[in-house]
């Protein structure tokens, strides 16, 4: 992932004090929210002839900007429905995640007219931030995928406020409750709240306990379109199975599972969601998605950046916990799951859990044959010399923390028995890329076997960058002979749907507001993921598995090639 794609750091632990808007305007002079003005023009008696041209001009302008104006693939697509009125409360609001991802996502939802008229944002953190709304405007201007429009931001900013306080101080939650009551009256948020915990994992339980004690949440709380109390938790969801269970118990003591949204931003990527559409929405693919036709499945999540000054953090985590336990295993479940009975959140997640439970454990000596871990050494990335991992700040000179891991997994069920799932992820690799590749079996009786171009078919699903799908197949070279050449048939998201694809956090925030948990991780999913990962760490320790090295800017250690032999890893 690039710097802009890597998940930002979260806010500090949050001295209570409600900070009103500092623009000098009394709240009684507030203009109506953008959606309120729109609704007024649509009521009986309103002069719609005056409102429509401006509305349509804005829609045409944004369609042209997104590259979707006149795009035939956009025709007939239904408009997204708006979310219900609510207040979004961000704990850790002074952190990078809020500035770089959350507020830009909120702004782009407002720009796309997907936020309700009754909407507000409350930041909560320890630092004094009298200029919170102004600093958020600067962040949106810098990090938004679309230009900042003053009118849209002004409407949004009127609902932005800030509460200063420590997360373990009862007074913080008392001040927050008063601010939310005010917003219910002035902004029409109807006592519906989303509490986004953009904080380190060790602060989650304290915040949930404080919210419960102040009666801002309860396990029997409302959870429907009219009124709801929802809590969003960022990864990591524990550091092993016991800590994940502790976290789940801490959450379930104050919330029902339907109120908990464990967010993995990878699942918000349009191309990741498209894996399900590709499989279950197309007759030509689903019948081939079995061990009878697929030789192996290859998953790559590669980054060309290093630890980016987060050496102290990475020494505690490593790439297995950072990427494999969540992003990579989630991709594997989407590729391997059985068709759900419906697009209901639990129906989808039930099938994902079945895949995780069917993963063959990698234990003991098996780690030596089925896994490779490594660290990047000094090398060259994008033409620049970069240091090795052990030369990074706050990294031990004798560190055994892995920055690369490759493994060969098996899903022991009827669909996938005998099909290896080879997975690799690492930092300081040759390029930033994420993709899933289905390598199909060769024909049982190949008429053109041995000729150039006679290679098995492959379906490549590129998740980032250059998002799209490619199908490799053989074609006859024009001429008198029967020469073959491998060719590809390409689909590119940018060409079909416009270049301004919504960010993952836009989709996920909107889903929380709508109460759709399909793309969020359930408690049993989290525990099943750790149940697969923990034995790998135990095996590495017991077998003293060595940590290989690879030059920065390469595709990883040579030892990883053995996991796919006699084949080779694809070079994206």
TrEMBL record:
All residue ranges annotated as the Glucose-6-phosphate dehydrogenase C-terminal domain in the record: 276-568
UniProt catalytic activity: D-glucose 6-phosphate + NADP(+) = 6-phospho-D-glucono-1,5-lactone + NADPH + H(+)
Ranges for region Disordered: 1-78
UniProt record similarity statement: Belongs to the glucose-6-phosphate dehydrogenase family.
Naturally occurring in which organism (per UniProt): Chondromyces crocatus
Organism placement in taxonomy: Bacteria, Pseudomonadati, Myxococcota, Polyangia, Polyangiales
Active site feature: 327
Annotated GO biological process: glucose metabolic process; pentose-phosphate shunt, oxidative branch
List of residues binding NADP(+): 92-99, 126, 166-167, 235
The protein, known as: Glucose-6-phosphate 1-dehydrogenase
Pathway(s): Carbohydrate degradation; pentose phosphate pathway; D-ribulose 5-phosphate from D-glucose 6-phosphate (oxidative stage): step 1/3
InterPro entries on file: G6P_DH, G6P_DH_AS, G6P_DH_C, G6P_DH_NAD-bd, NAD(P)-bd_dom_sf
EC number: 1.1.1.49
Listed Pfam families: G6PD_C, G6PD_N
Biased composition (Basic and acidic residues): 1-40, 49-65
Gene (name only): zwf
Function of the molecule: Catalyzes the oxidation of glucose 6-phosphate to 6-phosphogluconolactone.
